[in-house]
Amino acid sequence: MKPALVKKEAEKRIHIIKGQLDGLYRLIEADEYCTNILDLSLSVQNSLKSLDNLILERHLRTHAAELFKTNKERAVAELLKVFKKKQRNDA
């Protein structure tokens, strides 16, 4: 996916996430049923993970691919760092 398209898609997803967060806030303010709040909270988390995956894919296709050509050790170190962060977040 071209960087401009990724940016547009990321902005679209962020807009959706903002709407979900506003909805989540309203549910909490209205003291709605806990499972309804939890359902929306989980949806927000899934939306954020989807955004993360989009950004990571762009990074791998552009920046990381270029870095592998010029500095393989730095590229590997950077990807391992990102992978470890993602692993901690998924736990």
Question: Could you describe the 3D structure shown?
Answer:
- The chain is mainly alpha-helical.
- The chain has one domain: Up-down Bundle (Methane Monooxygenase Hydroxylase, Chain G, domain 1), CATH 1.20.58.1000.
- The protein contains three helices and no strands.
- The relative contact order is 0.10.
| Residue share in β-strands | under 5%
| CATH architecture annotation name | Up-down Bundle
- Residues in helix, %: over 70%
Q: Let me know the CATH homologous superfamily.
A: Metal-sensitive repressor, helix protomer
Which word captures the global form?
Answer: elongated
Alpha-beta content class: mainly alpha
Q: Quick one: CATH class?
A: Mainly Alpha
Question: Sheet bearing the most strands, described?
Answer: none
Count of DSSP helices? 3
